[in-house]
Amino acid sequence: VAVEGNIGSGKTSLLKHFETCEQAKVYKEPTDRWRNIQGHNALALMYEDPERWSLTFQTYVQLTMLQTHLAKQEQAVKLMERSIHSAKYCFVENLHKGGVMPELEYIVLTRWFDHIIQNEDCSPDLIVYLQTNPEVLHERIRKRCRKEESGIPMDYLQDLHNLHEDWLIHQTHFSVPCPVLVLDANLELQDMLNVCDQHREKILCGHG
Ligand code: DCP
């Protein structure tokens, strides 16, 4: 099961909530690995100079996502934060559309992505989409003060939001690998977790 949603939508909180559940093994996004590749902070470099570092960063994200998709299933349910699909269909697409990632870099990354998903089993059984309003996220990101994210503008969140919606709700652009369960993630944390609990069985059975 992959948990998807814009930056600051509450994916980590949802995963933490399910961490104590015996039947599920939780895979949080490896942001620490992105922030320290033998001493290099690829996430920070990507935000500081996206033209120079987006390809490097997204190539590494693609690798770490693949590793999580392929990690041996130890419990009945594997619950992962994001997927190789949102990395490509939302983030890489956004960088390319925004003119930050040149055509050739985009093509090379796309060839890698196509090769991976044709040859490896990267399809979840269910996507839990934490749907949010970008204005709410902007405020949350400001409050949480992650230093790499201090300069994220509203437009960036809006563009990422549109790409998530096109992919998972309108299903106009890219293939959706499985059913999608949409949850309202504009709610305050505890209310959102209560909603998750109402859908607990669906989430843990991997059915939308
Ligand atoms: N990121 C990116 N490209 C990707 C994946 C993530 O640029 N393919 C960036 C966006 C954020 C940071 O990495 O600055 C972490 O993003 P996420 O939305 O995946 O994770 P959050 O911790 O923001 O999620 P949440 O607040 O929902 O728990």
TrEMBL record:
ATP binds at G5, N6, I7, G8, S9, G10, K11, T12, S13, R140, I141, R142, K143, R144. The active site is at E81. GO terms for molecular function: ATP binding; deoxynucleoside kinase activity. Residues 2-203 form the Deoxynucleoside kinase domain. GO terms for cellular component: mitochondrion. Keywords: ATP-binding, Nucleotide-binding. Belongs to the DCK/DGK family. This is Deoxynucleoside kinase domain-containing protein. It comes from Capitella teleta. The lineage of its organism: Eukaryota, Metazoa, Spiralia, Lophotrochozoa, Annelida.
